[in-house]
Amino acid sequence: MSKNNNNISISGGYRTEDEKLEASLNKKCFDANPNTWEIKMENFPKYVKRQNLTRFLALYEIFKLVINVKGSIVECGVNHGFGTMAWSKFSAIIEPVNLTRKIYGFDTFEGFPSLSKNDKSSYTKKVKVGDLASSSMEEILKLSAIHDKTRFLGHIPKIELIKGDAIKTIPKFVADNPHILVSLLFLDFDLYKPTKVALEKLVPKMPKGAVIAFDELDNPLWPGETKAMTEFFRDNKLKIQRFPFDPYIGYAILD
User: Fold this and answer.
1) Inter-CA distances, 49 with 11, 15, 25, 31, 84, Å
2) pLDDT (tens digit, 9 = 90+) per residue, 194-219?
3) Cα(120)–Cα(133) distance, rounded to whole angstroms?
4) Rounded Cα gap, residues 77 and 165, in angstroms
5) pTM
6) Are 212 and 254 in contact (CB under 8 A)?
7) Per the CB 3.0–4.6 Å rule, which of 13, 80, 151, 195 could disulfide with 228?
8) Do 225 and 191 touch, CB atoms closer than 8 A?
9) Strand ranges (E), the chain
């Protein structure tokens, strides 16, 4: 997905002037609309950019692939919570009685903790420690609690966020949760080391038919994710697929 924070933008070079202005023009229309906030939100496709709807649809298509696969969803890289809340609401809508499917989200919520040599390329000159920080954890948990009150079996929390450097938090999480099965591993750390640790520790917890999805494969700004994937699956090549309407997400079904 396009990332815009601290001057990071992989898609900015491809955008037309009209595309760069779209968000601000949409905001003007949103602000000028005299209807209530609730009515505006109920009609959100009017104001959301096509690219954002594209991502929502792509996540929905990925979720459908694991509906019949046992296990929880692990999202590596929560950022502002778009994916985390989407997975939770998809589950509430499509499988309301699946009480054991939880959504686990890993993030520092303070930006990149470090960068390795495997994250360097001619495109990464502006990428630095602390980039893509988002202090969204408290808000996501609050919104999740609100959602829990209105969904079936809402007394069982659906979302759990794990804050910290994933190089440390993922091994601890796996050790503390020996029961865990992962039906969907969504990798959006962008960087080599945490992606490699996530693959090493979580893929053994994935049954046949489970899905691994990557957000930054073949992306010149984030070479570390591709390197981690190719190294880990060196002897067992993945069939990386994509959706015809989305340029970013690649996914593989484990067999």
Assistant:
1) 14, 13, 11, 16, 20
2) 999 999 999 999 999 999 999 999 99
3) 19
4) 11
5) 0.93
6) yes
7) 195
8) yes
9) 72-76, 103-107, 159-163, 182-187, 211-214, 241-242, 250-253
